[in-house]
Specification:
The structure is a homodimer of 345-residue chains.
Chain A (H helix, E strand, L loop, with lengths): L1 E2 L18 E14 L2 E12 L5 E10 L2 E10 L5 E4 L3 E4 L2 E4 L2 E9 L6 E2 L15 E10 L2 E10 L2 E9 L6 E7 L3 E6 L8 E7 L9 E6 L6 E7 L10 E3 L5 E3 L2 E9 L5 E8 L7 E4 L10 H4 L7 E9 L2 E8 L3 E8 H7 L1
Antiparallel strand pairs in A: 1-26, 2-3, 3-9, 4-5, 6-7, 7-8, 9-10, 11-12, 12-13, 13-14, 15-16, 16-17, 17-18, 19-21, 20-21, 21-22, 22-23, 24-25, 25-26
Chain lengths: 345, 345
C-alpha cells in the first residue's frame, strides 16, 4: 500500500484538550466512515494532566445523572496514602487512577487528507463502567445506520460496547456486547445467512494466544455461536497475538479484511485476509507478508514506537483508504487497490 | 446448612474409567436436577492415566466424524522432544497434553443420597474445541427442556458451551455461549421481562478481580447487555474471586442463589445471595458469613483441599438439597431450609 505523503494527517498538537488541565498525548487509531460527502475519523484521543512539582495529577471523570464531567485530581506525593504505580497511574486509599484517559473525537475532511478536529469529544465516559476511558472506535454502516463499537475500560477490566448514530452529533449507547476481556471487534456491514456477524478478540490471560473469534447475532446486541477462526501463526510477525481491523469489504472473491498482528519486540504489522462469502469464519487466503509494517519514522518512533494499527477503512470504487494509528500517537493514511491486494494474496 | 452423614456420596472409586488405561482421580462438582422421580447428578469425572517407569502417559481424544474416542498417548521420557510441564502435562514437538482430562457422567438416585453412576460418559469431548476436556456442568429446566452449560477447554483457552436434552440419554450441542475466558455460568429457570437471564464469570487476566456478571438473551444462544453485578468483597473469604453457583431459586422475597468465593490460601466458601425479582442484577441481600466452608476432613483434605464448590441444587418444597464438590475429588450433599436461609440473610 502507498502511504500518504502528508502523513501523519493528525497529531496531538491538532487536538484541543477536552478539559482545563488536561493535555493531549495521542490522537490515533481512528475509526473511519464516509458520511454526507465527507470522510469522518473517530479518533482515540489520549490525555494526561499537566504536572506540578511535589504532586501528581491524573485525568478523571465525575459521574452524575448519566453524564460525565472531566476533572483533574491532584495528590500530594508526600502523602503516605499516595502510591505511584509505575508510569501508568497512582493508587490512593485503595482507589486506582490511570495517568492517561482516552475518549473518541471526530475529525472531518472533504478530501480524506486534510482534517479538522471537532473541539469537543463525541464519545467520552458517562458512567462508572467507562471511568478509565473509551478507546479504539470502529464504525460500520448497517441498514442505513452507523454502528460504533469501542473498548471501555474500568476497574472491572476492559470490554467492548456498542452505540449507534444517524448524524454523528447525538449517539445512543446500546450496552456491552462482548464482556471482558475483549476488544478488536469488527461488525460486518450486512447480514450473512440472516444473521449479523462480528469478529472479536478475547484475551488469553491463562493459556493460548489471543486469536480472532467469530460470532453471530439476531439483533447486534446479543452474540453467540462463537468460534475461534484465526490463530497467530508461528512467525516473528505474529508471535504474540492477532486481532481484527475494521468492517470487512465485500468483494466477488470473498470478504476482504485487514487484521493486525503483534510480533517479536512488540512490533505491530498489518495483514490482508480473505474470507468465504457464505461462511465468513472460513479463511480462503491469508497474506504471508504484511501489507504494512512500521518503517517510516512516524511509525517507528513516538509514544509507543513500532506500531501500525488499523481500525478504519473507506472504500471508493477499487480504492481502499486505510486509516491507521502510528506509534499510538498519530493518524495516518495508506491507500491501495482492492484488485491488487486480492491478486497479491 | 446440614451436611449429609453419608458424605461423601460419590468418590472416584465409585466411577469406572471411561477407557482402558485411564484412571479416575476425581468425581466432583455435580450439576443436579430432578427428572422422572429421580435425582440426577451430572458429575465432573477427572481422569489421568496409569503410568509406567521411563515414560509418561496422558489421556487424549482422537476426533473423527463428529465423535471423540479416548486414547492413551505414551511418550518416552528419554526422548529429547518430550518436555514435562510441572505436574499438569507434557509438551511434545510444540503440542501440549494435559495430565488430567474431564468429562461429564450421570449418577442417578431415588432418594438423593444413594447414587448409581452410569458406566459411560454423558458428555465427553467430540471436537477439537473440547480436546482438553469438559468440566462443571450446570442443569436448568427451562420451558420443559433441560439446558446444560459446561466449561470446555482446548489450546484456545476455556469458555462456556450449551447443550440441551429431553431424556438425559441423547444431548444436542448448541455451541459456545460465552467466549474465553468465561465459566461459572448460571441460567435462570424462566424469562424475566421477556428475556432469558444468565450470570457468567469472565476471567480478569489483566486487572480487576473475577466477578459475577449479568447477561440477557432472546434465545439462550446469543447473549448481550452485560453488566458487572457483584464483585469480590475485601474479606479473607473473597480476596481472590467469586463466581456463580447453579440456577437461582425463585422465592417471594427475590431470586435466591448460592455463589462460591475463593479467598486467602485458595480456600473456597459458599455464600447466599438474594436478588431482585424484576431486576435480577440488583442485589437485595448478601450473606456476611458463609453458608458452608471447608471443615470436614473430606473438604479440607484430598486432591485439592479446602474447596467446597456448588453448581447443582434440587428444591423440594422448602428444602434445598445442595450438592457440592469437596476438595476437587468427591460429591457431597448439604441440606437447608429456604425460609431459614432467607431469615438469616
Amino acid at each position: 500500500m502507498k502511504r500518504a505523503i502528508q502523513n501523519p494527517l493528525i497529531s496531538p498538537k491538532d487536538v484541543s484538550p477536552s478539559a482545563e488541565g488536561f493535555q493531549v498525548l495521542g490522537a490515533f487509531n481512528p475509526g473511519a466512515t464516509s458520511f454526507n460527502g465527507e470522510i469522518l475519523l473517530l479518533i482515540r484521543v489520549a490525555e494526561s494532566c499537566e504536572q506540578k512539582e511535589g504532586s501528581i495529577s491524573v485525568p478523571t471523570y465525575v459521574f452524575e445523572n448519566g453524564t460525565g464531567t472531566p476533572q483533574v485530581q491532584t495528590f500530594d506525593l508526600n502523602d503516605p496514602d499516595v502510591e505511584l504505580k509505575d508510569t501508568r497511574g497512582v493508587k490512593v486509599k485503595g482507589m486506582e487512577y490511570l495517568s492517561t484517559m482516552s475518549h473518541i473525537r471526530i475529525a472531518r475532511s472533504s478530501d480524506g487528507v486534510n482534517f479538522t478536529v471537532d473541539p469537543k469529544p463525541f464519545l467520552a465516559p458517562t458512567s462508572e463502567n467507562e471511568c478509565f476511558g473509551i478507546e479504539d472506535a470502529r464504525v460500520t454502516k448497517i441498514e442505513g445506520r452507523y454502528y460504533i463499537n469501542y473498548t471501555i475500560v474500568s476497574p472491572d477490566s476492559w470490554c467492548t460496547a456498542l452505540a449507534v448514530t444517524d448524524d454523528f452529533v447525538s449517539v445512543e449507547r446500546l450496552g456491552i456486547i462482548f464482556p471482558p476481556e475483549n476488544k478488536d471487534v469488527c461488525l460486518f456491514p450486512e447480514k450473512v445467512n440472516g444473521k449479523y456477524i462480528a469478529f472479536h478478540r478475547p484475551n488469553n490471560g491463562g493459556f493460548g494466544k489471543a486469536s480472532i473469534w467469530y460470532a453471530e447475532s439476531p439483533d447486534l446486541i446479543c452474540w453467540g455461536n462463537h468460534k475461534c477462526m484465526l490463530r497467530p501463526r508461528d512467525t516473528s510477525y505474529e508471535s504474540m497475538k492477532i486481532g481484527g481491523g475494521s468492517a470487512p469489504i465485500k468483494t466477488d472473491k470473498g470478504w476482504l479484511t485487514i487484521y493486525h498482528s503483534k510480533g517479536d519486540n512488540q512490533r505491530y504489522s498489518l495483514f490482508a485476509l480473505l474470507l468465504d462469502l457464505e461462511e465468513p469464519w472460513r479463511v480462503i487466503k491469508q497474506a504471508v507478508l504484511p501489507l504494512l509494517q512500521p518503517e517510516e519514522p512516524y511509525e517507528t518512533e513516538g509514544f509507543f514506537g513500532n506500531v501500525v494499527f488499523t481500525n478504519g477503512m473507506v472504500v471508493k470504487g477499487d480504492e481502499i483508504m486505510m486509516y491507521y494509528g502510528a506509534s499510538d500517537e498519530t493518524c495516518c493514511l495508506a491507500t491501495g487497490s482492492i484488485k491488487e491486494i486480492l491478486n497479491d494474496l
